[in-house]
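hey can u check if this looks right to u? its 238 residues, i copy pasted from the old doc so theres a chance i mangled smth
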Amino acid sequence: MADAGWDAIEESSEFLEDLSALTQPEAKLAQVRDSEKAKWRLRLVSYAHLTEMDAPYELLVNLLRMRLGARYSVIPFQGIGRGGSKKGKDMKAPQAGSLGWAEAPPSPSKKIWQIKELSRAAKIPQVGLAFDEFYYAALRNAIDHSDYVLHQNQLRLLKGTIPDPIGSRSLSPVIPLDRLEDIFVRATAFYRVLFELAHQARAGFADLKGECFRGQFFSGQHALKGLLEFLIDGNGLL
């Protein structure tokens, strides 16, 4: 039902060969069938890894919550997960020792939506809007589900479309590699800055190593008293 360059199985088969070659002892990029494609495939996996990480979303949403006067939340996205509003559908039983998810964890799109809502309320909307520079649900889904093909200097999405170019109302399932490069550069820059700021913040606690403070902690509706100790690693980070 399609011409050449739309076969996801062939794409995944070649990627598996690339990974097998690159994970061998003394692996060299020259050993793979098409080194240029192999580099793009690894960058796609890196993009998916960054945009799927829970930690950056939880960090940002909690910083916004505290700016608005709310408390830190261990599960800041509870209530917006998939299946949260449908009886029984997509529901997951809490795992032993878990914090009790009553629903499947939310997708990155839903997390970003909540960050945008909170950043608008906090009067710093640019925090949420930053994701529009590089995050595309269709691209993330295509990578996660291997529904893409690299063909003739293009990334072809088998399901979904993204704006072409950025900010455009024109949607396309075909992403030129120079457009994909721009997305990768923006995503990498965003996360590098975020990680660097997080490290700087953690380093600011170094002088509190070994110190203990009396504190009050909340578990549901219960207030508990205890001691808070700051643990600092060998690099001076909280």
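Confidence is low (pLDDT under 50) at residues 84-94, 96-101.
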